[in-house]
Amino acid sequence: MPDNVNVPPSITESTAIGERVVVTSPGGRSRHAGVLLPPVKDGEPHRVHTDKGRVVRLDGTWLVAPERSAADRRRDRRRRCCDAGRPIYRYEDLPSAQLATRTMLRKQFRRRPAEGQDPVASYMVHRGFAPLYAVIDAKRLPPLPPVRKAAWDRARTCARCGATQATLYTKGLDGRRYCEGCHEPAAAAWWYGERATGRTTAAAWAAELLADMRRDPDKVALLYVGYPTSTMSQTVRAETWKGEVLFSARVCDSDTFYREGQDTHPAELADAFRRLGGRRLLSWRGEENWLSRLQEAMHEHVGDLDLTFAGGRAGPHWDEWQAERPPLIEPHPFQYQHQLRRQEDPSCRPPELLAHVRHVVTEMAIRACHWHLVTCPECELSLPFGTSAAADRWAKQHSETGHTISHRTEPGDIVPSAVNRR
Ligand SMILES: [Zn+2]
Ligand SMILES: [Zn+2]
Question: What is the CATH number of the domain that holds 334?
Answer without folding.
Answer: 3.30.420
